[in-house]
Each structure stands twice: as structure tokens, then as C-alpha cells.
Amino acid sequence: TPTVGLLFPRASETREVNSLDGIWQLVRSNSSDPLQGIYERWYSRNLQSTGYKIIKVPVPASYNDVTVDEELRDHVGTVWYERHFFVPSRWNTNGTRTWLRFGSIHYGCFVWINGQRALNHSFGHLPFEVEIGGLVKYGKENRITIMVDNRLNNSSIPQGEVIKQSDDTGHVLIQTYTFDFFNYAGIHRSVQLYTTPQNYIRDIELKTQVNKQMGRIDYKLWIGNEHEQDFKSTILVQLLDRDHNVVAHQLNRNYLNGTLLIPNVKPWWPYLMHPEPGYMYTLQLNLLAESGLLLDSYQLPVGIRSLSWDKDGIYINNQPVYFRGFGKHEDSDIRGKGLDNALLTRDFSLLQWVGANAYRTSHYPYSEESMQFADEHGIMIIDECASVNTDLFGLPLLQNHMSYLEQLIHRDRNHASVVAWSIANEPRTQKPIAKKYFDELANYTRSIAQGRPITAASNVAEPSMCMMSEFLDIIGFNRYNSWYHNPGRTDMIIRPIVDEAVSWRNLYEKPVILFEYGADTLEGYHTLPTFIWSEEYQKTMLSKHFQAFDKLRKLKWFIGEFVWNFADFKTEQTYTRVGGNKKGVFTRNRQPKDSAHLLRQRYHMLAFIL
Ligand code: GCB
């Protein structure tokens, strides 16, 4: 069933937002008995009374690295979060609904309020919410209890496997996975209580276009009013520019669809493609009673642009786009994958400094806050779902994969910055069984794609072996010449990259992007002549790729270069990773390696000439 609702919580004349972020209590349950807390009904009393050790932890944050406890870092199974909170008594009116909303929890969770089940959700990196008016005590203290399960299996997105191994004292459970980033877990994004009126604006879907000077917004609204069948909605839709002038408006009686035309529109442009990139209007929606009384009000930021694509490229406002980008991660010291506004600000500042105009949300959806930053900074997003290294293509997996894409597209469809959906990273598409899987998946995604092309990152040894790419609109590939292929050989980059891009093109006749290339680099390690892992090596590797890209750029179907990675990030413990994956152009602490300066010259040069 398609998702409806989940608008990002915003306070307004008719809505209040209270944050439940802060310090929560956490209990780590026994790995060998992850459901103990369910049998013993831990949700029906304070966690304190379970006798287990209570740890105070921050929300939002991954729980893994906030203490020095190795068992917590490497925990497999469930942890329990709890806190107390007040609900204002002024919310206790017939006209007010109380909602509880999560930005994301990794991976599966059950939520109870005052011991009563409120909801459950699985999939990390996506929001979910529930109306809790019937569960809370107004003007009194309430308790929220959440069980979070980090286990991944054959049909989770992404996949993983929990195995039992002997250790020095008995047996342990180990979460295995093949993807190359740490399986951080916990309450990763904000937890919010918010109100809406009884009759409220439940959802919005926008399509924007720009034609010469004329902007156009087609909108569709959903009103939440199931308690009053004969409710007649009147909606005043106003578009405000940055200076709060109303530049278009419409009064809609009983219609939930409409169109705004904006003469002399200021289109949304990518960074450095226009003197004023990321121009955002505000769509002001007012739901009115028949008497004209204001019932509900919601403000949605909106960038107005057209997006199209053909076999040679992607076009924003009819201009061809060349992507200067990165693969990124939501990752930082101590916080793990927890939302951190300071980090967001720093990352966007660095993206601008380096002259990038895009990134791929490798390998899962990033926070809604980051999507808003991307809109405002003119950073184009290749929006990836959490399918990474997908293997064993079963039906339950396909169903979850579809549902994941549906929830992702629903969440992000109104962002001007989103220019493509990436349905997978490096699935095992050399397997014949992958063909039917991706045929179905791509067909489904196309049916809900909201005017965006579909892409994915393939790493099969040879384009003709890929059982997925024929179903895509944009061909993406990942290739590590001079790293996984011919390590140490920076003289074996230009030709293989050019040849491979050409063969992808010849096979599929679609635009082609290199989504990953890179080399692990230890900051401060210098060698002459260049040697693998040194700062010099990363620079040489980059500049050889630049030479290849300059040849390819002349063929107009080659439309982008994405360095792997923006910054160093944590991985699981293996002998190939020294303190994590070090392919960042920036350190994990967001300071430049030498290569960042080189990349900066190139990205600014490209912005200037293209
Ligand atoms: C890849 C993966 C990415 C890894 C990267 C690497 O192909 O898509 O998740 O981190 O290679 O550095 O090995």
C-alpha cells in the first residue's frame, strides 16, 4: 500500500513540534536471547527494574561508539531505549491530534507508549510515525520504550547473516555482511512529538516545470479528515518568494489538485550553474473552514525546475548537466550515523569549497535535513535506496526492496535536488537470476518514479555480464583501476576507463556515469615516487582519471564523475581496512587531504567551462 502522510514536522500557526531528542536510557539485552525483553514485558515497567545495566545515551546517535564498551560496539540483537516525557495539557482538545514521528531507526523496532504498543517498523534510514492521542496522558508524565534490533538477514535491505561461532568461553553471535561500512545502529535521527488539527493537511505531491520565463507547479493534496465524511475543504495555496512576496496563489474549493503559474520565475539551478543556485520558494498551504477560519497551515520549501533525460544526458531547465560529485556516507567519529547538524553544515561548506554539484547517497537514504540542505545549496542528489551488494534474489527480498523504494520516493519526491533514483549498489548482477529481479524492480520503480530517471551502480567485470543495466535510464559503474585492479599501476587507468565507458555506451545507448573510483590514502603519508596509500598516489590516481574523463566528456553521453569517497569512514574490522576506509578526499574529521586541493581546481574548472 502506498505511503500517505509523513510530512516533515514543522511548527506553524496551527501546529506545535516538541523534540524528544536528548539523553535516553539504554539497556543492551543478551545476544543469545534477543526477545527476552518481549517475553518479560520490559515495556510494561521502567527499564531500571529489569536489573540490567542502564546506560545513558544520546538521541540521535548510533549507540556503538558513544561508550568504550566493546560489547556494546559489536552488539548483535536488540537494545532497549526508554525515556519519560510530558505532553502539554493544552494538546488535550478534540481539535488536536498528537503524533509521534521518527526520522529513522536502524534496523527494526517496536515502540510502546506507557506500556501499550504504538507501532513497529523495519528498514533503517526512513521516517515513520503514528498518531498517539489514545496512548498518552496529557499534562502528565509518559514513558516511551523502544526495542531496536540491528540484525540483518537474507531479506533485509541491506542483506546480512547472523552466524554462531565458538569463542574462548562458549558461543557468540556474529553479524556478517559484505558491504563496506560499519553496521551502526540505534535511533539515528530525531524523535518528535507534533500536533496537527483534527482536519489537517496530510500530504503534498508536487511536480514543477520551467518553460522559458514561466514556472509551473502542479500540486496534489491529501486532507486528513476521516472523522467527518461531509467535510468540505477549502484550501488557499500561496507561493512566496525569498522576500515573502506572494507570487502566485489559488483558492481551491473541494479540489485537491491544482496548478500555479509563476511568470518571471527564478528557477532552481545546481551550484555554479547560475549566479543564484538553489533558489527556494515557500509553498504556503492554508486549510480553511467554510466560515474562512484557518484550520491548518503548513509551509513547504520548493525549488522550481524542469528535469528531463534522453539517451545522451540529463537536463535541468533544458540545460545539459555534467555531474562533479562524490559518493558519501553518513558517518562520523563517536556519533556514527547519528544526525549531526554541525557535520551537515561542515559537509555542505566543503562541497561548495571543492566546487561539487552532486553526490550519491551511497548506500542508503540520508537525513531529511540533508535533503533540505541539498535543495538550498543546489547540490544534485542521486538518491539511493539501502540495497547494497544484493545477492540471493528471493521474493521476500524483492518485496522489501520495492517497499523500500516506495517509502524513499514518497519521502523525497518533492525535493528539487533529487535528480535520479538509484535502485542498488553493486548487486551481484552477473547471476542470471538477477535479470528477472531487476526487470520487476525497475518496472515497479518506473511506475512510481515521479519524473526522475532510474539508475544504479554496477561493478560486473564486463558490461555484457550485467543483468540489471538494460532496465536503467542512466548507466552507472564503479571501477577501481590502480587500486583493486592493478594496484600500484597509475599507468593503467586512462585506457581502461575510456574503453569501459565506451563499451557500456555501445551496449546500452544510455548516458553513462562513473559512480566510484578512488584509492585508500593515509593522511600525512608522503612518498616520492608515488607509492600506494600515499597522498601523492591519490593525487596521481585522480589526475589520470581526469585525463580519461576529458576524453570522454567530448562524447556527450559521458555525464559525470563521482570520487569515492568524500571523507574517510568506519568499516567493520578487516585486514584490508586500517582504521576504516581511507578513500576520502577529506579525513573523517572533515579536513582536506592534498587531493582535495587538486579536485577543487578541477571541479571549479569544469564549472567554468561547461
Ligand atoms: C565499492 C563499494 C563501496 C566501497 C568501495 C571500496 O565498490 O561500492 O561501498 O567502500 O568499493 O572502497 O572498496
From TrEMBL:
The keyword Glycoprotein applies. It is found in: Lysosome. Its EC number is 3.2.1.31. InterPro entries: Beta-gal/glucu_dom_sf (IPR036156), Galactose-bd-like_sf (IPR008979), GH (IPR017853), Glyco_hydro_2 (IPR006101), Glyco_hydro_2_cat (IPR006103), Glyco_hydro_2_CS (IPR023230), Glyco_hydro_2_N (IPR006104), Ig-like_fold (IPR013783). Residues 18-197 form the Glycosyl hydrolases family 2 sugar binding domain. One of its GO terms (cellular component) is lysosome. Pfam families: Glyco_hydro_2, Glyco_hydro_2_C, Glyco_hydro_2_N. GO terms for molecular function: beta-glucuronidase activity; carbohydrate binding. One of its GO terms (biological process) is glucuronoside catabolic process. Residues 200-305 form the Glycoside hydrolase family 2 immunoglobulin-like beta-sandwich domain. PROSITE patterns: GLYCOSYL_HYDROL_F2_1. Gene3D superfamilies: Galactose-binding domain-like, Glycosidases, Immunoglobulins. It catalyses: a beta-D-glucuronoside + H2O = D-glucuronate + an alcohol. Residues 312-607 form the Glycoside hydrolase family 2 catalytic domain. Keywords: Glycoprotein, Glycosidase, Hydrolase, Lysosome, Signal. The keyword Glycoprotein applies. Inhibited by L-aspartic acid. It comes from the Eukaryota. Plays an important role in the degradation of dermatan and keratan sulfates. Belongs to the glycosyl hydrolase 2 family. Homotetramer. This is Beta-glucuronidase. It comes from Drosophila hydei. The gene is LOC111594326.
